[in-house]
Specification:
This protein has helices at 19-29, 59-70, 84-96, 118-128, 139-146, 153-167, 209-222, 227-243, and strands at 5-12, 33-45, 48-54, 75-78, 101-103, 134-135, 171-176, 183-189, 193-198. By secondary structure, the chain is α/β, with parallel strands linked by helices. Keywords: ATP-binding, Kinase, Nucleotide-binding, Thiamine biosynthesis, Transferase.
Length: 262
């Protein structure tokens, strides 16, 4: 028996709601074999992130070397990255192995604390993003990566042009739930655009929604599906995951990763 294989490069969440944990659950639920390389160990729960421990500088390289020397994944994605060294290491593997790469830029915590420094964000923008098949920022991340203030759908179009023309990404999906009062995701490529809109789900349990969204796209591309179809499935998957979210923990619980969508 063979399965499509997807690799996630991100941080470890001990309560299972986000990061590598969310990615692997999503991969498995979509019948994709998941691999993982850990960038950070975190002490976090439904109430927030208490501490982040970066792995030793050379250990991410050792993990990726072990993976790629043994079995090259069909696709890969990155999430929590917290140092320039991590960015440089991932860039090397992306350049050496021509497989679809999804970047879920994790720049701020859900409490708004900056996780990736401005210097590292500039390196991410300059060195890594243009190798991605698609980048999936929320509004605040899109502002940090493009340097513009996004207050309208016109600003989202402007940000997309910066991603595509100046940064050089192949495609970008910008997530917004503030400007229009609905849950909107905007896909832009060099040739076209597509907007998907749902009503905002009234739940406090949203942890891992960004990780899950990009994980669905990664898994679907690993299965040979187009970016547009992967985008549609990710939007539906996360909407259902929020509608059936889990009341685990004292504050903000996780999205439900085990949605029956096949």
């Amino acid at each position: 028996m063979t399965l499509p294989v997807a690799l996630t490069i991100s941080g470890y969440d001990p309560t299972g709601g986000s990061g590598v944990n969310a990615d692997l659950k999503t991969f498995q639920n979509l019948n994709v074999y998941g691999m993982s390389a850990i960038t950070n160990l975190t002490a976090q729960n439904s109430q927030g992130i208490q501490e982040i421990l970066n792995i030793p500088d050379d250990f991410l390289e050792k993990q990726l070397k072990s993976i790629f020397e043994d079995s090259i994944p069909f696709t890969m994605k990155s999430g929590m990255i917290t140092s320039i060294y991590m960015i440089e290491t991932i860039t090397k593997y992306v350049k050496n192995y021509h497989i679809p790469f999804v970047v879920d830029p994790y720049i701020f915590s859900r409490e708004g604390e900056r996780i990736l420094s401005q210097e590292a964000t500039a390196i991410l923008t300059k060195e890594l993003l243009h190798h991605a098949a698609v980048v999936t920022p929320n509004l605040k991340e899109a502002e940090a990566l493009t340097g513009i203030d996004i207050q309208s759908e016109k600003d989202i179009d402007t940000a997309a042009k910066i991603f595509l023309r100046e940064i050089g990404v192949k495609a970008v999906i910008i997530n917004d739930s503030n400007i229009t009062g609905k849950a909107c995701d905007y896909l832009f490529t060099k040739n076209n655009s597509l907007t998907l809109t749902e009503e905002i789900v009234d739940t406090k349990n949203k942890r891992g929604s960004g990780s899950t969204f990009s994980a669905v796209i990664t898994a679907e591309i690993a299965k040979g599906n187009s970016l547009e179809n992967a985008f549609k499935k990710a939007k539906r998957y996360v909407t259902l995951g929020l509608q059936n979210s889990l009341d685990i923990g004292k504050k903000d619980g996780p999205i439900n990763h085990f949605i029956d969508i096949e």
